[in-house]
């Protein structure tokens, strides 16, 4: 029960932040990526602002054994740079630049994004559905080391 | 608008607080693509309700805040071909890379994760190139 309430609160904070920061405005996101056009610095403030409480949370995590609900805390970050990370990030970046949307803001804008947002959402969910089969293919392409 | 960076900072602090609550409360990394993707491909079936409630919070709060703000718009393109292509790229890409702006960017870089920095560097460069190619060269966006 508690973990469900926490999930709702965390989601509410995330959604509020995406809304207030202007990150559901595709023009601002594309404006930040468009260094050769009329550059918009807002996204840097959003990312910087978000990393402050998050970095503090990671420091607290190092001093705890479990999360508040008793759930295990995430293991230390992996440092493996594999083909999936690189290929996936290239594809994601291209799509992000093309539409100015990433997964979080897509959900945050559901109540006001209009039909175009639902077209994007449907395509994104389809992409997520087929990704596991591509993941397996990329894994096979790399011989085990 | 001159006030945009302040709203960016305020919004960013709220996004990071959400991530902090999710990490220290539930022991989970707040990555939007992972939370959604786990529901889509079935890998997150055991935590489906937790994921759904998180996403409900994400979708609900902007609707609650909306009446207090004027002129909020997504400026989303009405070119459905562009939206379908972009959506597929974002969906496939984030799941292959196992993270997006929130997971690799906010949560990864703030713990000094190498994967977070590499992924974020790549998708920002790819996004910048995407805007150059599709806006300045091809003129489709």
From TrEMBL, chain A:
Q: Which UniProt keywords apply?
A: Membrane, Transmembrane, Transmembrane helix
Q: Which InterPro entries match?
A: DUF6691
Q: Where are the transmembrane segments?
A: 42-60, 85-110, 116-134
Protein's name according to its UniProt entry: YeeE/YedE family protein
Query: What is the scientific name of the source organism?
Result: Sagittula marina
From TrEMBL, chain B:
Q: Which UniProt keywords apply?
A: Cell inner membrane, Cell membrane, Membrane, Transmembrane, Transmembrane helix, Transport
User: What InterPro entries does its record include?
Assistant: Sulf_transp_TsuA/YedE
- Membrane-spanning intervals of the chain: 6-25, 53-74, 80-97, 117-138
Where can this protein be found?
Cell inner membrane
- According to its record, how does it sit in the membrane? Multi-pass membrane protein
Q: Which Pfam families match?
A: Sulf_transp
User: What superkingdom does the record give?
Assistant: Bacteria
The signal peptide stretch is: none
Task: Respond yes or no to whether keyword Transferase is given for this record.
Answer: no
Q: Name one GO cellular component term.
A: plasma membrane
**Mostly located where?**
membrane
Please state which protein family the record places this protein in.
Belongs to the TsuA/YedE (TC 9.B.102) family.
Name the PANTHER family on file.
Answer: INNER MEMBRANE PROTEIN YEDE, SULPHUR TRANSPORT DOMAIN-CONTAINING PROTEIN
Would you tell me the protein name for this molecule? Sulphur transport domain-containing protein
